Structure formats: structure tokens, C-alpha cells
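Practice problem: predict the structure.
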Amino acid sequence: MQIFSKYLPVVALGFTLASAYAAPVPVTPTPITNTGTCTLDSVSITTMAPSNDLSSPVPLPSGGINSTHCFGVIAGNDAQNGSNAPAPNLGYLGDGLLNGGLLKDGKYVDPGVFLVDGSTYQPLQDPNNAVDPGWIMLGAMEGTGTMNGYTVQNGSFTLDIDSVLTFNLNSNGTWSLQINADVVDILSAAGLFDRSYFDQLAFVFKAGSGSKDNEGGWAIYDFNFNTLLNAFPGAFDLTQPYTFTGKWNMDDFGGKQISHMSLWARDPISTTNVPLPGTVLLLGVGLLALGFMRRKVQ
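Answer:
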């Protein structure tokens, strides 16, 4: 009995530690406050032309078009809690950074921060509950080079983003986004064609860390084509996919080197039974199958 009494405090301490380890204090999700230090000219579109006729570019203003909104620069890392890759990557609330997914520190970007100028939440998972932001992650990359396209999962079917577009971020401060001119045939042959369109394109840049104690910061730059269409009425032929070129810089990060970046597009869908027009917006029919795929998942 004395032996048991002697070791009872040790046993109790061990039980207390085990209980604490098994039940950590949950982190309360917190929206990130935008510091407002980003600048719209950090990313711009300089040329755009129909993918099937690159010799006929759309007339854009001299110097191109700057991003319409930005968010950041945010201290720390944009890494998600778990995997950086959204899954099924259909624009659901909480699935990925721009859809309000949690970061490692328990914080998140308000998923409505770029839902302006006519953009709204959508009923993607539940047709009776419009809570989904609708952002699709097109791909990501370390440093500069050619982006690795992500996938979109629709049940047993997987769409490889690389099959419909190519994105390059060049070390000389330029970028290009090429949409396959035959993408309509590619998607319709797979039974994926639907009347939908992308109305926003967003770049997420993460600066390289200067030391182990400095993670460099990150920012989001958004092109809202609803805004651009109002600014440049009649400038676009909305019936075909486009190829883009543009410029980028790291001035908002004090000229630091880029660590990694990701590319996102937002696909609005009709929330009524009225068919969408048979035209598509800027990014073109190159990616319009994704709205159909989401509805098939429901």
C-alpha cells in the first residue's frame, strides 16, 4: 500500500499529461485583417488575343490593365492547414485559400473579400444554400517557370487543368496564360460542355523569407472582369477563348525574390432555371465545364 501511495502522484501526473495531449485546446478561426499595403500595378494584363488568332489582339490601354483589387501584404505564410491543394477543388466554402480555407495559424481570408461588382456567393454543394465563393485553384508553382496545373474532381472523373491551359511566370517579370483554342471540342467530347464562364482571375504571391524568422509575407491580386467590361465596353469578343500576357513585380515585398505563387479563377453559375447566354467572358469557354461538373456532384 505504501508503494502505491508513493507512486500515485506520478500516475496522476501522467494521466493529466496524457489527457492534455489527447485534447488540445481548439484554435478559434480568425479572419485576417487586410493591412492595405499592396498595390494594383504589381500584376497587370498587357495583351490578350483570341487563342485561335493571336495576330488579332484586343485593343487595350497603353501600359495594359492593372489588377482591380488586392489583399495584403500579409505577414507569415499562405500555407493551408494540411494540404495546399483544394479537393475536390469545385469552389466550395472552406476548400482552399480564396474560399475561406484555414491557414496553419487558424486564420483565414474572408471568402467575400473579392465578391464585389456583381459577384455573389453560390449554391454549389447545396442548391438551397448560397454559401460557396466558387474559386477554382488552377495550379501552383515554386519560384518561376511553368505552372503545375491542379485537378478538379467530379466523382470518379478528374479534369487535369494542364489539358486546357498553360501558365508561365517568367523571371524577367512577365507572365502568360494560354487557353487551348480547341478546348470546346476537348470538353464537349467528354460530355462536359456547359454554358458558364469565369469572371475573375487571381494571383497569390508569396515572398521568399530573408531568414528562418521572416516568412516574407503574401498577397492576392484579383482581376474582376465585370469591372473591366464596364471600364472598356465593347473591347472584347465574348465568343471565344483568349490567351493573355502580362507583367508582375515584387515591389510590394520590398523587392524580395518570389517563393511560390498560385493561380485561381472564379466561375459563377446561374442560380435560376434561365439559361446563361451562349457567350463567355474573357477566359473564354476554355474552362466553362467546371460549373457543370459542380452541379453533377450535387
